[in-house]
Write a structure and sequence with these properties.
α1 links the parallel β1 (8-10) and β2 (43-45). This protein is of the alpha/beta class. The strands form 4 sheets. Strands 1-2-3-6-9 form a 5-stranded parallel sheet, covered by helices on one side. It has a two-stranded antiparallel sheet with strand order 4-5. A two-stranded antiparallel ribbon has the order 7-8. It is 35% helix and 10% strand. The chain starts with 7 loop residues before the first strand and ends with a strand.
Length: 393
């Protein structure tokens, strides 16, 4: 894939207008695609689409693989006779200029649960075979995610480290018992993922028909309270209770005089290397199935990382992630955009060079109110870089 000179707009789905309190994959998304095509834009960039957790941030999600069920268009479920008009007319009067996540989650998940129950109760539903195939093809992450969310519901939303010890530790007997006991709840979460992916694929096809590609986002770290960490604790620096022993952050710099505390658990890169980076390969594949192009957030994290407790940069061993593994390649070079800020020091051994990425690092942001605005003009950028314009606010 080549990247000819083109423009686009970053608009996360949450910002689309909707009567259900949050932007979704319904009519407004298609209208925005039409706007992009009519205005000559070629890219639609979105933030991570995963189900949000702490702080409702798309960078703190319950899964790096799953989609956010809040993005499901209820109107499409109405057309499938999985909902009744009364289900939609009972929506509260949501704010127009921001997302009130508390009320949106309470209303929308209740309606989505009714749709799921009707779908799952119909063994002869026209999409039943498609649903079964989806569950089979995505079992590697879907089973853990659905069980994680079902268990989380039983524990009233508590962090998984505060669950009953046996299921927290993922003892084999506990996994079997909870999977059987919560089988119906698990199927509901699986159905939501099926419907999210079905609606997303339809929107993506619509965009392609109008010459628009979708750029997604792969955050470098995952949330501690996630199916990823619960299902794969061996890949992270955790203690015996499952709590992080060190967490991610960045030191003081131009953007923050006091540095930043992100709180995400740190990867055990040696363990990842020993298993052939299977988890990362699966994550890239899943993202490149959703998106045409992906932005690799905090790309420097593939070379070195900062731990808050140690307060210094720790290099990742040179023979691990900086040398892309086989298996078809960890990162398809023509479909990724590494995010690197201009302040990062780079050299010939940096991952963007050793991975053979054909696109130069993204500038990060093209600050409109720069102290040297002339330096941010496109004529000063290299031919193969990406830059973002931020409207002053």
């Amino acid at each position: 894939m080549r990247f000819p000179r083109c423009g686009g707009i970053l608009l996360h789905l949450t910002s689309l207008p909707s009567r259900q309190g949050i932007g979704d994959l319904g009519q407004s998304a298609y209208q925005f695609a039409e706007f992009l095509a009519a205005s000559g834009q070629k890219l639609w960039q979105v933030l991570p689409l995963s189900p949000t957790g702490y702080g409702d941030s798309p960078y703190q999600c319950f899964s790096a693989f799953a989609g956010n069920p809040l993005f499901i268009d209820l109107g499409a479920l109405l057309e499938q006779d999985l909902l009744a008009p009364l289900d939609l007319s009972s929506a509260p009067d949501f704010p127009r200029d921001y997302v009130d996540y508390g009320s949106v989650i309470e209303f929308k998940l209740a309606v989505l649960r009714r749709a799921a129950q009707k779908f799952l109760g119909d063994d002869w539903h026209p999409q039943r075979a498609e649903f079964e195939a989806f569950c089979h093809n995505n079992a590697a992450w879907l089973n853990d995610y659905a069980l994680f969310m079902a268990c989380k519901g039983v524990h009233r939303g508590a962090v998984w480290t505060n669950w009953e010890p046996a299921i927290r530790r993922r003892d084999a007997a506990a996994l079997n018992e909870w999977t059987t006991t919560l089988s119906h709840h698990i199927e509901v979460f699986k159905y939501w993922q099926f419907e999210f992916c079905r609606q997303w694929d339809n929107l993506k096809t619509h965009c392609h028909q109008r010459g628009i590609r979708i750029m997604g986002d792969i955050p470098i770290y995952v949330a501690h309270d996630s199916a990823d960490v619960w299902a794969h604790p061996e890949l992270f620096h955790l203690d015996e209770q499952g709590k992080p022993t060190v967490v991610a952050g960045v030191p003081p710099d131009y953007f923050s005089a006091t540095g930043q505390l992100w709180g995400n658990p740190i990867y055990r890169w040696d363990v990842l290397a020993n298993c052939g980076y299977r988890w990362w390969i699966d994550r890239f594949r899943a993202s490149l199935h959703l998106f045409d192009i992906v932005r690799l957030d905090h790309f420097r994290g593939f070379e070195a990382y900062r731990t808050i407790t140690l307060a210094n940069w720790l290099p990742i061993p040179a023979d691990t992630i900086t040398t892309p593994p086989s298996d078809g390649g960890l990162v398809p070079a023509t479909e990724t955009v590494p995010e690197l800020l201009k302040t990062c020091e780079r050299n010939a051994n940096s991952p963007e060079h050793t991975w053979g990425l054909k696109t130069k690092p993204s500038i990060g942001c093209l600050f409109v109110r720069s102290w040297r605005p002339w330096q941010t003009l496109p004529s000063f950028h290299c031919r193969t870089c990406w830059a973002w314009a931020v409207k002053p606010g």
